[in-house]
Specification:
Elements: H1 5-8, H2 11-14, H3 28-33, E1 47-51, H4 58-71, E2 79-83, H5 94-109, E3 119-124, H6 144-148, E4 154-160, H7 163-170, E5 180-184, H8 190-197, H9 211-214, H10 220-226, H11 230-243, H12 247-252, H13 254-267, H14 280-297, H15 307-320, E6 326-327, H16 328-335, H17 339-352, E7 356-359, E8 369-374, H18 377-384, H19 389-392, H20 395-420, E9 430-433, E10 438-445, E11 448-455, H21 461-475, E12 480-484, E13 495-498, E14 501-505, H22 506-512
Parallel strand pairs: 1-4, 1-5, 2-3, 3-4, 11-12, 12-14
Antiparallel strand pairs: 6-8, 7-8, 9-10, 10-11, 13-14
């Protein structure tokens, strides 16, 4: 590795000219690098770990951050990049290779800069040197405290497939919990895709921000505390008014996003205006990336003997599109494993990679079934259809993907609000079945449940509304949401349809998550 350091860190000699990056910043870049502020999330603690499945853009984020800081005036020598997946030989005696690489950097490279400048050691794919199945070999966690010792301006940034890989290695070190943070990296949201397609929407007058919905006097938590939802309704209306003039433009891109999801639309060269611009090869590549993630990453943190079952579970979820729940007993018979393997092994492994989330019924301590949501609608298309034509030509299929995307965005919505309130930000979104129908999504802020019904098709509106009303009567919740597709007509796009139920356009909800 030492011999190849200059190859992996060409900016030391050539500056920013060496970077070959996508034409736009990955969405996570803005909250990680904070380009308009001093400092960054990379510097808020000694260690920041970016976790997510292979191909989601973790390496791109490291390079975008490095490029940004050098272009902004930092010395190129402040950044050391170590890719442990670039060469299998780097993974042999990795603890010694890591020490030697850092020692070379300290003596030959970093010494060129001022002593008081922060510097960053970026360790890509650190899970490759975990060595969890070799008890006589130390994993990477053993040497990490030594890298930080007596170097207050040093920050370690690492990538891995799953948060458990980071927690497991650091649990047996002298590091305190507040010395490291784990940040998941997920596929791009609808908002990210839209801003790429129409950069003018990021202008101050049209850029709708979810911040005021997460905290402050017009936020959802404030409405829960006061019981008065009028300020929240007005805030949603202000958000709508910001983009009302381009509503049709935004609506027209919903089906393309549903067809592509957030991985293909980012990885593709240039801006993808329509899913018809994609080929079957794009979806094949996405499917193969997921296969690689399962077979190469899962063994590192889960002792699952039949990795192929995880791929089969994803394919089952793609075919079902979360239209109905699977009984655990049916899954047991289908996969020929016990329930514990499904519930405690298969589903957690897929959730750790942010590939698939198993959802159970709200307020049911002994659920008999589980609903399977893939976290990227492009993967649904890749596994079930192979191209976008089936989605664009079938409104029923479009509505089903709209439910999958709404779940993923609700997970993000719940995370953002709870994190802003200082609550446990780990999102949990469930469904609820009543006598009048189903509430599609339920999440909690503190201990208060928020019901969300989806009426992407006009015929679904009455049942969705009745289910939300029944839920509110059952749990005495102060606010609920009805998400309406563009075929659901009303006098006002944002309207109060009941005392405590707010109807929002589906596209606006995605934009604000």
């Amino acid at each position: 590795m030492v011999e190849a350091l200059h190859d992996h860190n060409p900016w030391w000699d050539q500056g920013t000219d060496v970077f070959d990056l996508p034409t736009r910043q990955k969405s996570d870049f803005y909250h990680l690098a904070r380009p308009e502020q001093q400092g960054s999330q990379f510097e808020d603690q000694s260690i920041l770990a970016l976790v997510g499945r292979r191909g989601v853009g973790k390496t791109t984020l490291l390079h975008q951050f490095t490029h940004h800081r050098i272009a902004d005036g930092d010395a190129p020598e402040q950044f050391l990049y170590l890719p442990f997946d670039a060469n299998p030989l780097y993974q042999l005696q990795s603890d010694e290779q890591l020490r030697r690489a850092v020692r070379y950097y300290e003596s030959r490279i970093h010494g060129r800069t001022a002593d008081n400048n922060p510097h960053f050691i970026l360790i890509d794919d650190i899970h490759q040197i975990e060595h969890s199945n070799k008890p006589t070999i130390d994993g990477w966690g053993t040497g990490i405290p030594n890298l930080l010792e007596d170097t207050p301006d040093r920050h370690l940034v690492m990538t891995a497939s799953a948060g458990v890989q980071i927690k497991r290695e650091l649990a047996n070190t002298t590091l305190e919990a507040d010395q490291y943070q784990i940040q998941p990296v997920l596929p791009e949201k609808f908002r990210d895709y839209l801003f790429t397609l129409y950069p003018d929407l990021e202008n101050e007058e049209t850029r709708v921000s979810p911040t005021s919905l997460r905290r402050g006097e017009h936020s959802l938590p404030a409405a829960l505390q006061s019981g008065d939802i009028d300020p929240l309704i007005e805030e949603f209306r202000r958000k709508y008014d910001q983009v009302a003039d381009v509503e049709r433009r935004i609506q027209s891109q919903v089906v393309d996003y549903l067809s592509m999801g957030g991985t293909i639309s980012y990885e593709h060269d240039g801006v993808v205006e329509s899913a018809t611009d994609l080929t079957a090869d794009d979806y094949t590549r996405l499917r193969e990336n997921v296969q690689n993630a399962l077979y190469q990453d899962v063994p590192g943190f889960e002792s699952i003997q039949t990795i192929a079952d995880l791929e089969r579970l994803c394919a089952l979820a793609a075919r079902n599109r979360a239209a109905e729940s699977f009984r655990y007993q049916d899954l047991v018979e289908l996969f020929d494993v016990d329930r514990r393997t499904i519930a405690d092994s298969y589903l957690p492994a897929l959730a750790e990679l942010y590939l698939l989330t198993g959802v159970t019924e709200y307020d049911n301590s002994r659920p008999r079934g589980v609903r399977l949501y893939l976290r990227d609608t492009g993967l649904v298309t890749a596994l079930a259809d192979g191209n976008a034509s089936a989605v664009r030509n079938d409104f029923q299929r479009e509505a089903e993907l709209a439910r999958v995307a709404a779940f993923d965005h609700t997970m993000r919505f719940a995370y953002g609000i709870n994190a802003a309130q200082g609550n446990d930000p780990t999102p949990s979104v469930q469904y609820w079945r009543g006598r009048q129908g189903e509430v599609d999504f339920v999440f909690e802020i503190g201990e208060t449940p928020i019901p969300i019904g989806l009426a992407y098709r006009s015929r679904d509106r009455d049942e969705a509304l009745a289910a939300i009303q029944e839920f509110q009567n059952e749990y005495d919740t102060p606010v609920g949401f009805l998400l309406a597709g563009d075929t659901v007509r009303g006098s006002k796009p944002v309207q109060q349809v009941d005392d405590n139920i707010l109807q929002l356009p589906y596209w606006l909800y995605l934009l604000l998550c």
